[in-house]
């Protein structure tokens, strides 16, 4: 069954949703379609994987991040921090309230639509949640900053080296966990794996070798082979093509908005002076 995919900043596309079969409850009752606002980033990829794993129909609203559209008032009404992904589930328990932050979105989807991917209670639940939060607080920031600063290592060797070492620490911590369990949360695949996989794909790009983290590499192969993960690739590829077009078409002013250079902030000198005078920490 083909369902329309409307893009917030682009043309109408189509994504394919499998028809419901015997015993498949996914399409038996009509509901307003879930909306995923995003672009081809790892944090959006993890939500696409979850939606595919849970068999949910959804519309992709592409946000032209490379042209600074995340700072438009309409998008800021969805997420005041101007970041993707954002999920809107009109008929869900959130009552159509936009949900931002990928960890919150994954938790919401698992609790409302995919109980197989987050245990309801007990030690197994907290095993999943602690690895989910580790991804949000450590894996994404360390690997993302490593990708950023390695491009400008000549300009800031300290930052490049710092995040290169932090990234290696993250990869090795994941490998240690996966040496003792099949998946990050334990014996079963969960939202912790969905969250971490898109970022772990940077492993080779960050100069790591298979022999450095063999258990992590084997886990990546296992997750990559899942049918839902394979289906999500097509969704991300379509957004990637739009992102590439946006990058090519962006004006100098739009590039500055993408980088956040338009945001008012203290100068380095003002920030340094504030450290010595502030009584608020």
3D structure, described in words:
This protein has 281 residues and is an alpha+beta fold. The protein folds into two domains: 2-116 and 228-259, Glutaredoxin; 121-225, Up-down Bundle (Glutathione S-transferase Yfyf (Class Pi), Chain A, domain 2), CATH 1.20.1050. The chain contains ten helices and six strands. The strands form two sheets. A four-stranded mixed sheet has the order 4-3-5-6, with helices on one face. It has a two-stranded antiparallel ribbon with strand order 1-2. Strand 1 and strand 2 form a beta hairpin. It comes from Alterirhizorhabdus solaris.
Concise structural overview:
This protein has 281 residues and is of the alpha+beta class. The protein is built from ten helices and six strands; from the N terminus they run βββαβαββαααααααα. A four-stranded mixed sheet has the order 4-3-5-6, covered by helices on one side. Strands 1-2 form a two-stranded antiparallel sheet.
Throw out a few tags for this protein.
four-stranded mixed sheet; Glutathione S-transferase Yfyf (Class Pi), Chain A, domain 2; Glutaredoxin; 281 residues; 6 strands; 10 helices; alpha+beta; two-stranded antiparallel sheet
Overall pLDDT:
88
Q: What general outline do the C-alpha atoms trace?
A: globular
Structural class estimated from helices and strands: alpha+beta
Discrete helix count: 10
Assembly annotation:
single chain
Strand order of the largest sheet: 4-3-5-6
Which stretches are poorly predicted, pLDDT < 50 over at least 5 residues? 1-29
Biggest β-sheet strands, sense, barrel: 4 strands, mixed
How many structural domains?
Answer: 2
CATH architect. name of the largest domain: 3-Layer(aba) Sandwich
Helix content: 40-55%
Number of strands: 6
Strand content: 5-15%
Question: Radius of gyration from the CA trace?
Answer: 20 Å
